[in-house]
Amino acid sequence: MSRNLTKSRFKVGYECPSKLFYLDNKKFGNLNAENSFLEALAEGGFQVGELAKVYHPGGIEITSANKDQAVTETAELLKRDKVTIFEATIRHENLFIKADVLVKSGSNIQLIEVKAKSFDPTERNPFFTKASVKKNKPQLNSQWEPYIMDVAFQAFVIQQAFPDFEVEPFLMLADKTSIATVDGINQRFFLDSSVGGRVSVITAPGTTAASLGAKLLVKVSVSKEVEVAWASQFRGGHSFSEFVSYLSSLLETNTLAEPVVSGGCKSCEFRIGADLKSSGLLSGFENCWSKARGIKAADFSRPMVFDIWNFRRSELLLAQEKVFIDQVERDDIDPREGADGLSASERQWLQVEKIIAKESTPYFDSEGMAEEMERWRFPLHFIDFETTMVAIPFHAGCRPYEQIAFQFSHHCVNENGTVEHAGEYLNREKGKYPNFDFVRNLKRELEDDNGTIFRFAAHENTVLCQIRQQLLSTDDVSDSRELVAFIESITASTDSAESEWLGPRNMIDMCELVKLFYYHPPNQWFELD
Q: Where are the domains of the chain?
């Protein structure tokens, strides 16, 4: 049975036409089978969609699960002179879309695609690369390109289905400059999975645009950007309309597009592991590389050049027919000695050497680590934060995606070698803004001695710097100066900070220590005893 080219399938086909062959084929494993759902759940996509509906009162939602009926209902509504439709369902030949919001007035249709992504409306030409704007030849930047292509496809389908209408495309996004003026907005949109496990959003009774205070979403015209997308040239020299027809024909004929392989295949969702293959699933990644490069099945156990950690020259090696790490030579990496511990290139070459030698033992620079440890002061403090950044704020005074820190744990290693769970913080009070109490409690945990503080990766430093900025922007916190001074004493300024500092007790990043002094080859690259 032929499949429709939907906006989600268009997105996949735009990334790589070959993926369309594997996408709905149950024989092939797919690592993203649930990722899109989990991503929308994590980012608040379901709730943002409902918020957009609140901002369009009087809209009529197409709820029919029957595609033909949904298309018919949408077409009937579009006969009205003025109408707002949610989940408007439109088909043209094998093209099929469900638009988030359509607002029709006369012969004009506003196509509004809602995304749970932050946007700064004060930024000029945000969707184009700066260099292309200067040359007056605008090109979409990589950050926004997938979103613009999504809208461009939907606008194309509507124009094909209703050629007498003028289509204006928009994105509706989380306005990062807006500040919530009402508490508890997030809690007005309840996630519910009681009907067959399918997630839906229940909006609290009485929720209106007026009841939500300041508007948190911004509608942005992307007409110019869609025109650029339509004027782009696609794989094989196709125009936009030709590329849409090409993807549609792949689906109708269930044909595998000729694979074009590159370093970008590293993150392919059809590059499945041994666990899924052992259950009988096939690897689309291996199928593509076998057809494009003639690689035999047994060779896929060999790590590939784009598996080298943080390596930026894999495309160059692939062009030289060096596909596997065991084909890499020292000059390909050109390792340079690090000042303190392993440099990035030394670490890359160490990885290559161990794979070539089939050596699975770890590397540990005990002397370098010992020298580093001489600088530590007991007791050693280890902290870990739990935070959230959501599109729809929980609290008045917060912006979309503003940091909320609600829990930390604190462990200590004493000079005699004992380990203790020294303390923790957890905000249990519903509706309470926790950030400043979070810092007060952390300060109490750490201010009684001068012991070295540890974190893993940048998260804890970033969160504290963000709370510092929140404190500086607030007038009604009596101990603001003390809390800011404490934060500056244990952190280093981030690139976005208005000033620079390096705290005398700046937290040590254990992730960086691992990179400098330790390396362990992944077990899946070797046969374990």
A: 33-244, 313-359, 373-513
